[in-house]
Amino acid sequence: MSSYTLPKLRSPLYYILLALGVLVVMVGLYAVYQMEHHGHIITGMNNQIVWGMPHVFAIFLIVAASGVLNIAAIGSVFGQVVYKPRAPLAGMLSIAMLAGGLFVLMLDLGRPDRVIVAATNFNPTSVFAWNLPLYTGLFTLVALYMWTLLERRMNCWIKPVGLIVFTWRILLTTGTGMIFAFLVARQAYGSAILPPLFIVMSFGWGMAVFFVVQSAIYKWNDRTHDPVILSRMKNLLGIFVLGTLFLVAVYHLTNLYFAKQTDFEHFILRDGGIYPWLFWTGYVVLGSLLPLLLIFHPSLGKVRCVVAASLLVILGSFSLLYVFIIGGQAFPLSIFPGYEVSSSFSDGAITPYQPSVWEIMLGMGGVGVAFMITAIGIRVLDFVPRELPNN
Amino acid sequence: MSDINLQRRNFLKTAAGAAMVTVAPGMLLFDVAHGNPQSVGKVRWGMLIDTAACVPGCNDCVTACNNENGLSGGTATTDSQWIRKIEIKDISSRREVSLPMMCQHCESPPCVEVCPTGASFKRVDGIVLVDKHLCIGCRYCMMACPYKARSFVHEPLQGQNPDVPRGKGTVESCTLCVHRIDQGGKPACAEACPNKVILFGDLNDPSSEIAQKLHSVSTTQLRADLKLNTGVRYQGL
């Protein structure tokens, strides 16, 4: 048991970080109080852009929560030994980020006090409603999976439970993608490529978050990365970044091919101001090409480079989600194809959106929740990845 | 011992009575909100809008809707607009048309399909409504509506019309003035239009004016490609 002790986590800095985490969560809750009191009028959202900055945070956290379980699945389901010691940390990060994402999603509701209504009234045709049991199921299954990992008598169940968790997380991310794929009304959505795109995005984002957290824990405990394992993990991250880039390119190219979608694509990729800028600079260059360079360039690829690449992937993911969620709504609905349209309700016009500080505070609150659960989890249980002796 | 039992019996009687008094009015209202059961499969309320007669710049239908339903009439992006005037111009021919736009009361409404709690629902007479007690304010229905017909209540409300309850943090849209229809009336916009652009009636009744007109003139459903079978039709598009 003595090997489970993490001396550095007893230092004052740990408690300072915990206090900061509490502060960030409190800031998020204060934003909720303000939004509940004044209504969504204090946010940047409106009747055209109905999902804003909180949803960028929430969807990142939920997608990454599912993706980080890939680390566990590679070890438990696909038998890659070097990933096995990483499974408990991956499981805990998944629970932490899912809790953070749901914190944001639920507290952004117009009536957050009615969460119980959502739990007791289930519309079977709603993909949103399907997602609720998928979320609660993931919590339960990951907790069960971690029990099989941490309790020696349960170790024989790791593979079957790991397989169920892996299947469930694929279903969950499919469900997240379907929230958008099932929308026929808006041109950005309603595409069957979105669920697979979300699954591949989750692989990369989960891996990036995992690598950042693992590196922070290693640094804190004066541990070093095994070069072989580092190389394998960074290569995998690179493949996921490439996979996402490929599917994003296919999504836009398909749209560009359809005449009815070209105006929308020109808006997102060229004329839309902040959206093309975030897409090309934030997602493509900083969030994909630069990380690929840091990962695959022969003279780079060291720990610091991979951490930087992971942070850039996270930055790129926020850029991509901002363009996808907010840019997708800013473009007007095509109710009268072939006509110029104008009205008092922004018909035919690009709707401006300026995220308010309350939205960002709420989103950061979700990140704070994820951080708190991770920080406390690492302190209470033994989640630090240790290389197995034969590695 | 019998004394205690008697007290308990009286308590239970009073409690049951009080519960009935509390619940009964709600149950009665609940029944009304679902429309007349006699009309199952028979009545389908709808509108036919004659765009040729709709005057650009005329906003009487919008004003009537705002007054009837207690809307502010504001046109900021966060204000509720249950009905709006849209001006469209054909890109190639430059022909201009003005028309009112509201909830299309679809037979297969995407808002009802996506609503996680069932707050968005369709009455037996085809009117699509939001149950303000079930709406959690997720706005997924607003993402799903192809007509941008729904508004979210962004701020606290004052001076509501008791017949048209609204709520901060919930989604709302044209109710087809259901409170008027249930009393034999017609929607405020149809009544207010000076040019009789909006014809309201029962789409399923072959003898109704709207059904006969739909039979005799060419009409259009907006986004007909989506096959939602809208209850609102347009003439002259």
Structure description:
The complex is a heterodimer of chains A (391) and B (237). Chain A is mainly α. Chain A is built from 13 helices and 1 strand; from the N terminus they run ααααααααααααβα. With 237 residues, chain B is of the alpha+beta class. Chain B folds into 2 domains: 1-33; 42-235, 2-Layer Sandwich (Alpha-Beta Plaits). A 4-stranded mixed β-sheet of chain B has the order 8-1-10-9. Chain B has a two-stranded antiparallel sheet with strand order 2-3. A two-stranded antiparallel ribbon of chain B has the order 4-5. The termini of chain B are far apart. At the A-B interface, helix 5, helix 6 and strand 1 of A face strand 2, helix 3, helix 4 and strand 6 of B. Strand 1 of chain A pairs antiparallel with strand 2 of chain B, so a sheet runs across the interface.
Taking the sheet with the most strands of chain A, its summary is: none
Mean pLDDT of chain A: 92
Radius of gyration of chain A: 21 Å
Quick one: overall form of chain A? Answer: globular
Number of domains of chain A: 1
Give the class-level CATH name of chain A. Answer: Mainly Alpha
Helix proportion of chain A? 55-70%
Q: Which chains have the largest interface?
A: A-B, 49 and 56 residues
Q: Quickly give the structural class of chain A.
A: mainly alpha
Total helical elements of chain B? 7
**Continuous helix count of chain A:** 13
Count the beta strands of chain A. 1
Low-confidence stretches of chain A: none
The oligomeric status of these chains comes to heterodimer
